[in-house]
Specification:
alpha/beta, single chain, 7-stranded mixed β-sheet, binds pyridoxal-5'-phosphate, 13 strands, Aspartate Aminotransferase, domain 2, globular, 2 domains
């Protein structure tokens, strides 16, 4: 049976297309295709939207994390990350010359477990990376920040899932030293590939402007005094970002409505859904559900009904990735191991109809009440 509810859909209206065509004309008139006026405009508007002081655009979410870590100079130091994350986090640490140290997760809001961080943080810790899974900022970020402050270690936020998220009124990326956003195709905002770093610290902003351009000095474009690379964003990516800023609030609202359908229909059943905490706002990059039956059965039944599952967050945690095998013993990641085996993500994107989310719930309830 062909799938009628796909993993993901992305649509652009006529007015979206007109905005892009018009912008492309301007870019071609300026004939300056990278890291120029559209990138500056996107950075300024992103800062306004996120209530951040500074934004630095880069070419993807992985290099957004890497450039923060390079800016903080973690070379030779340990960087604490959750094992329940995308492999990009570990890659970014390694590329910045750091040593990834993995921690387990808490199950309430799916964030890195602060008590595990407290056990692993040392004088040689260069940064702690917190990942807002599915767009949920866990209340445990308060404890995490305190642990980091006590050790004088910068807290870095991976906001790849968390555009528009907040906890107690504080937007994603504003709790620690800096936050890294991804604009990959499936994200809450997309530029195809792309990333943004937000920070309140002018020193970090300046460092990242240098890092993304091969570590060049401000005074002399041909003299390089820091460990940099080429992380620049193109003008076409920035144009798409400007469009996304115009439509992101509406698109987040739709994601929240879909998430509410899952919560409402599955309430009181054996299907547990994860939601934003009280005082939290979540854009629901993913709606995360724990299955009471083996996940293969869920996938098979949904597929039979024309419904496909979106990728999980995450089925294979970092410590189980082949490339890191034998580096990180699995025993201490109890919560990560159970969560990665039991959860799944039903479709949740603005192009999904609310009636489709209802249908998905109806099918799930035929598997288990
Ligand atoms: C949690 C997390 N961090 C980082 C990234 C990397 O972002 P990108 O794909 O833009 O490099 C992703 C992306 O998919 C992600 O899910």
């Amino acid at each position: 049976m062909s799938l009628t509810i796909p993993i993901f859909k992305l649509q652009y209206s006529d007015s979206d297309r007109a905005f892009l065509k018009n912008g492309l004309d301007k870019i071609l008139d300026e004939a300056y295709l990278t890291n120029h006026s559209f990138v500056r405009a996107f950075e300024q508007q992103f800062s306004l939207w996120n209530s951040s002081k500074y934004s630095v655009a880069v070419n993807n979410g992985t290099t957004a994390i890497e450039s923060i870590l390079r800016g903080l100079d973690v070379r030779g130091k340990e960087v604490i990350i959750p094992s329940n994350t995308f492999i990009a986090c570990a890659v970014a640490v390694l590329n910045a010359g750091g040593i990834p140290v993995l921690c387990d997760m808490e199950l309430e809001y799916l964030s890195i477990d602060p008590s595990h961080v407290a056990e692993k943080i040392t004088r040689n810790t260069g940064a702690v990376l917190v990942v807002h899974i599915g767009g949920i900022i866990s209340p445990s970020i308060i404890t995490l920040k305190k642990i980091c402050d006590d050790y004088g270690v910068p807290l870095v936020e991976d906001c790849a899932h968390a555009h528009g998220a907040s906890y107690q009124g504080v937007r994603a990326g504003r709790a620690g030293a800096a936050g890294a956003f991804s604009f990959h195709m499936t994200k809450v905002m997309t530029t195809g590939e792309g990333g943004m770093v937000v920070t309140e610290d002018e020193k970090i902003q300046r460092a990242l402007q240098s890092v993304r351009q091969f570590g060049k000095t401000e005074q002399n474009a041909t003299m390089h005094d820091r460990d940099g690379s080429n992380f620049k964003m193109t003008e076409m990516q920035a144009l798409m970002g400007l469009l996304e800023l115009q439509r992101v609030e509406k698109r987040i609202q739709k994601r929240q409505q879909i998430a509410a359908v899952y919560d409402e229909k599955l309430k009181g059943s054996s299907w547990k859904t994860w939601s934003a905490p009280p005082s939290g706002v979540c854009p629901y990059y993913k709606k995360i559900v724990r299955s009471p039956v083996p996940r293969e059965k869920v996938e098979e039944t949904l597929n039979k009904n024309g419904i496909s599952l979106t990728g999980g967050v995450y089925y294979i945690p970092v410590h189980k990735q082949d490339v890191f095998k034998n580096k990180f013993p699995g025993g201490e990641f109890k919560n990560t191991n159970s969560f990665s085996a039991e959860h799944f993500c039903p479709p949740c994107y603005p192009e999904l109809e609310l009636t489709e989310a209802e249908k998905i719930c109806d099918v799930l309830l035929t598997i288990a009440k």
